[in-house]
Automatic annotation (TrEMBL):
It comes from Salmonella enterica subsp. enterica serovar Rubislaw str. A4-653. The lineage of its organism: Bacteria, Pseudomonadati, Pseudomonadota, Gammaproteobacteria, Enterobacterales. InterPro entries: Mur_ligase_C, Mur_ligase_C_dom_sf. PANTHER family: MUR LIGASE FAMILY MEMBER, UDP-N-ACETYLMURAMOYL-L-ALANYL-D-GLUTAMATE--2,6-DIAMINOPIMELATE LIGASE MURE HOMOLOG, CHLOROPLASTIC. Residues 13-46 form the Mur ligase C-terminal domain. It holds the Pfam family Mur_ligase_C. This is UDP-N-acetylmuramoylalanyl-D-glutamate. GO terms for molecular function: acid-amino acid ligase activity.
Amino acid sequence: MLKTAARLQPVCGRMEVFTAPGKPTVVVDYAHTPDALEKALPALRRKI
């Protein structure tokens, strides 16, 4: 099970981070309900 989990790819649109030299970092998350946004923002704050 651990071997399989290690091969999993992240879901597109879930906390996707885009960076480019000299540009601001952009994070895309598909949180489209108030509850999802309420959970996504604290998770993002912990990463930044």
